[in-house]
């Protein structure tokens, strides 16, 4: 790739084989390139995964992504260099972006969440629930200090706080292809938590 990189794998002890795959990658690429972290805690969440990952990140940029091969990294670095953006976010709802493999229910949930967020918060970005982003390391650290959400609403709060702090956000249209293996953890509890977080941000920002 031409980049000096490291991959930090955060696993919550899930039974999907993540840890075994990471251990195999360590054997191939070395422990200086693949860092495996297993976090066993009832308080594990997206936010805590970010915190633990940042503690071990040594680069100037941090790319946050799912480990199910739904995303591609290269375009993010190209976009960042174009505008020296503080954050580059993937968007399924702009340009030639899109979603493939989701049923109607999942599409409605995602569209509805983004529509409500746009109406209530005016975040200045078109996809607030996506999990594929590039951050300057120092920007991510500042945002983590400001954010209070821990679940799925965390992604939305990161962009809202970034807008508040005056950080620049670039967007890259992505074609999101649903995972081939495993299942999404999105359920009723996460949806309720998202709505509560949305209303909290609306009342406090």
UniProtKB/TrEMBL annotation:
It is found in: Endoplasmic reticulum. Its cofactor is Mg(2+); Ca(2+); Mn(2+). It catalyses: a di-trans,poly-cis-dolichyl phosphate + GDP-alpha-D-mannose = a di-trans,poly-cis-dolichyl beta-D-mannosyl phosphate + GDP. Pathway: Protein modification; protein glycosylation. The keyword Ribonucleoprotein does not apply. It comes from the Eukaryota. This is Dolichol-phosphate mannosyltransferase subunit 1. It comes from Casuarius casuarius. The gene is Dpm1.
